[in-house]
Specification:
5-stranded antiparallel beta sheet, 184 residues, Aminopeptidase, single chain, alpha+beta
């Protein structure tokens, strides 16, 4: 049986290489599911739940044609987590999401990866905007969306996931134009 994998982009930044976790060049099972694999910062201790999460992330690429990218070090291939567009059922619209593994936080990895994804979305994919849903108590993520230039827009409550603050990302040129219009 031949299984077709949808074509997926590769994004490279100064330090990082971002690939689809569905890509043949990334072994999601080896990176996230084997005993002793790095845990995500907000990991669930249930190994079965982790398997379902990874399967959902890979399936998202097949269903939507885009999804979270596996973030890897360009030189060593070390995996740092997942960053990218995410749009599960029940979400208000497409979201830029990030989830790093323990030990990858505080090194600018999420910001560098998110900037690479935003450039790809706005330049190559021509998306007009994307949101990030952030728990208001997650100070690191609030600082990140602010560094990325996103604007707070309100809140979104999800039955299972809870309440989030909505932050809107727009292309830099559009953000600059709106800023200048506001000063006029």
């Amino acid at each position: 049986m031949i299984v077709a994998t949808p074509p997926s982009p590769v994004i490279e930044t100064e330090r990082l290489r971002l690939v689809s976790p569905a890509s043949p060049e990334f072994n999601a099972q080896e990176m996230f599911l084997v005993p002793g694999a790095p845990q995500f910062l907000d990991h669930h201790p249930d190994e079965e739940a982790t398997w379902w999460s990874v399967a959902t992330i890979i399936g998202h690429w097949h269903l939507r044609g885009y999804g979270l990218f596996a973030v890897m070090d360009r030189e060593t291939g070390e995996a740092y987590g997942l960053v990218g567009p995410w749009f599960p059922r029940g979400w208000p619209e497409r979201e830029l999401s990030w989830n790093l593994i323990e030990g990858a936080e505080g090194r600018g990895i999420a910001e560098e990866a998110a900037r690479g994804v935003l450039d790809w979305l706005f330049t190559d994919q021509k998306w007009p905007s994307i949101i990030s849903l952030v728990d208001p108590g997650n100070e690191a993520s609030v600082r990140l969306v602010q560094k990325l230039g996103a604007r707070a827009e309100g809140t979104f409550a999800h039955e299972m996931a809870g309440e989030f603050r909505i932050w809107r990302h727009v292309p830099r040129t559009l953000a600059g134009k709106k800023l200048l219009e506001g000063l006029s």
